[in-house]
Amino acid sequence: MNIKAFGSMTKNLQGLFWTAFWLKKLALLLILCCSVDAFADDTAILTKIEQAGSAPKTLSATFRQMKVVKATGSKIHLEGTLYFVAPDKMAQHYTNANEALIINGKQFYMVRSGKKLLFDTDKNPPMRSLRNTLLYCLQGKLRTLAADNDAELTVAEDAKGYTITLTARKKAVRGYQTIVLRYSKTNNLLMTMEMNEFSGNSTIYTMSDYKTNGQIDAAKFNIPK
Predict the structure, then answer these.
(1) In degrees, to the nearest 5, what angle opens at C-alpha 175 toward C-alphas 95 and 197?
(2) Structural contact between residues 54 and 140, judged by C-beta atoms closer than 8 angstroms
(3) pTM of structure
(4) Are 174 and 165 in contact (CB under 8 A)?
(5) How far is 106 from 93, CA to CA, in rounded Å?
(6) Which SS3 state, helix, strand or coil, does residue 144 take?
(7) What is the pLDDT of residues 16-32, one digit of tens each?
(8) SS3 146
(9) What is the mean pLDDT of the chain?
(10) Per-residue pLDDT reduced to its tens digit, 57-86
(11) Gap between the Cα atoms of 153 and 61, Å rounded
(12) Which of 4, 95, 103, 141 would give a disulfide with 136, using CB separation of 3.0 to 4.6 Å?
């Protein structure tokens, strides 16, 4: 190979190298731009949901609840009415079971299979976590919920609504491995909530017939003596 031919080949190789180099840079730039756009879209969706959830001073809805027990494979179907008064009062009154769930400030009252349970959430971290989870999901405070529980948060959108998934970064004996939330595009309010425990048990809520800023009897949130 003469010197002239060698120089020409070297020049061509350098040209190919720089072409590949800049193509790679361009591809990375496009990926980065897409990631930034996706992040911006997710942020806008989460902000929209939080604004919708924080707007009503009162809220009521019909709910259906399904509990799935992993050990037996049984499914328990319940239903009733959900009541909420901002910022920290929530009650689930059941129409087909001797059960109840009432959050009134720091107090958390439950009736499960006829057994009455009352917790001070200041002194009971697991129940405080459950209290906040229920209130934050209803109010759309999903970024706060993810931060408080060290959970990864993902957002998906389709023609009818938004699906928000919170996934725990660390495995635990108790608590929720994933929480999958579905919000309506019509009013940005919570439609379904699927809570999957580390134990394998799960609870799914479906909400409908929302009424906002109506009068709600304060007795709905009374903690029985």
Answers:
(1) 65
(2) yes
(3) 0.81
(4) no
(5) 19
(6) helix
(7) 555 666 666 665 655 55
(8) helix
(9) 88
(10) 999 999 999 999 999 999 999 999 999 999
(11) 26
(12) 141
